Every structure is written in structure tokens, then in C-alpha cells.
Amino acid sequence: MRARYSAYVEGEDQFLLDSWHPLTSPSGLEIVKDQRWLGLKILAVHQGGSADATGWVEFIAKFKVSGKVEKLHEVSEFVREKGQWLYLTGTLKN
To answer: Which residues contact 8 (CB under 8 A, 6 or more apart)?
Structure first.
């Protein structure tokens, strides 16, 4: 989760695509250029340890775009395949 957040901060769209599960991955990704990420707060983690094949992370990421501070509150689901954690899907929270 932290690596994907860092990739958004740095605009590394290829890492984001590479760490996205093939079943749910978009064909392309466009990073919003005037978006500035302000911080990541992990609220909860379930599984995702070295012996697990699945896990989820609830987080809030704050960002600023067009002069307005916004937040993304999501529960992200991950699966491990061939030793690599892949983002499967996310559910937005209010």
C-alpha cells in the first residue's frame, strides 16, 4: 500500500500498473499532473503478512488539486501472486 501511494506521489504510473492485478488492471493510467499528495494514514490492516495470500488495507490519502484539499478513503484488497502483492480492487468510503 505504501509503495503504491509513493508511486502516486512520484507519478510512477508504470509501477502502479505493474502492481495491479491483471484481472482488474486498467489498460492505461493517467496521473493528474496538478495533483499534490499530502499524506497517507493507514486506519486498519487485515492479513497481508508473510504467510498470507490475501489482505486488505483501509486508508485515507489526502491530496490537493486545483487549490482544493480532498481525501480518498478506501479499503483496498490485495492478493499475493508469485511472491508479489497485487492491488485487486478498492471500495470507497465516505
So the answer is: 16, 31, 37, 61
pTM score of the predicted model: 0.91
Write down the CATH number for the domain with range 2-92.
Answer: 3.10.450.50
Report residue 55: phi and psi, to 5°. Answer: -175, 165
CA distance 90 to 80: 16
pLDDT, one tens digit per residue, over 35-69 is 999 999 999 999 998 899 999 999 999 999 999 99
Instruction: Give the chain as a 3 state SS string.
Output: CHHHHHHHHHCCHHHHHHCECCCCCCCCCCCCCCCEEEEEEEEEEEECCCCCCEEEEEEEEEEEECCEEEEEEEEEEEEEECCEEEEEEEEECC
Please report, for the chain, the start and end positions of each structural domain, with discontinuous segments joined by +: 2-92
Looking at residue 56, what is its pLDDT?
Answer: 97
